[in-house]
Amino acid sequence: MKKIKLSERELAAEKALLRGEYIPAGAAEVRNIARAIAARRKDAVLNIRVNSEDLTHLKQKAQKLGVPYQTFISEILHHYAG
Questions:
Q1: Which residues does 69 contact at the CB level (< 8 Å), separation at least 6?
Q2: Residue 4, SS3?
Q3: CA–CA distance from 61 to each of 45, 51, 55, 80 (Å)?
Q4: For the chain, domain boundaries
Q5: CA-CA distance, 32 to 11, in Å (whole number)?
Q6: Does residue 50 sit in helix, strand or coil?
Q7: Distance CA 1, CA 43 (A)
Q8: Among 4-8, 56-60, 68-72, which is the least confidently predicted range?
Q9: Which residues, 6 or more positions from 71, have their beta carbon under 8 angstroms from its beta carbon?
Q10: How far is CA 79 from CA 21, 27, 29, in A?
Q11: Cβ neighbours of residue 78 under 8 Å, at least 6 residues apart?
């Protein structure tokens, strides 16, 4: 069996799980999570032209947040569309 190398964060979560620090989610909570994931599913493609400086700034902000810039832009669109 291939051994998977876990990050420090993953190791901490695994140890907490083994210590019993997590409790199972109820069926209603699992359904709510599934609905939230489905609602955020990206099922359309959008091609737009933007100012290169704006895109550079968006990429820099996304990097500071530690997220891919396309995800960051998608979240901005979601915020203003909703």
A1: 55, 58, 59, 62, 63
A2: coil
A3: 22, 16, 10, 17
A4: 7-41, 43-82
A5: 27
A6: coil
A7: 36
A8: 4-8
A9: 62
A10: 34, 28, 24
A11: 40
Identity at 67, one-letter amino acid code:
V
Contact of 62 with 68, CB cutoff 8 Å: yes
AA identity, residue 68: P
- Report residue 35 as tokens: 């609905």
Q: How many residues does the chain have?
A: 82
Which amino acid, residue 48?
Answer: I
pLDDT in tens, 42-63: 889 999 999 999 999 999 999 9
In order of 12, 41, 82, the CA distances from 62 in angstroms are 26, 20, 21
